[in-house]
Predict the structure.
Amino acid sequence: MSSPTTTTSPPQTIDLTALPVAQLTNVKNQLTSELQHLTTSFSQLKQAQAKFRDCGNNVRDGLERGEGTPILVPLTPSLYVPGKLASTDTVLVDIGTGFYVEKTPPAAREFYSRKVEELGRNLQDLEKIVQGKQGNLNVVEDVLRQKVIAESSKGGGESSV
């Protein structure tokens, strides 16, 4: 008994001109939906990157003040309460899903810097995918347009005969 081999098959190419208008419309709608989802994801990643960048800047700039300095402590994104800077030796870093870790300011800045770089790489990858999907959508729209024009000219030519 031979063991199955795992090979990845190359992407299949479809002759768009062979598809009927209804199927082309479905492909166009699917690509549009995927493109909207990817664009939303891209925007969310950009916002997360900006948030991490701001956090790193806040650690850098906020600790230049001395202990006991009055500050505003964020409880939610829009609610702040007054407080005093207790220590500049350590900071609490939100590592996600509600977990916080105590770090030194340099370690916190390095953590946020890594996150910004990682998200930057993800954004570049996602941008390439978005561009590819946009190209595919443009091709499908062009073929669909040509088919609709061809069908309408056929219909118009037959009715005049």
Notes: The beta strands are 70-76, 79-84, 91-96, 99-103.
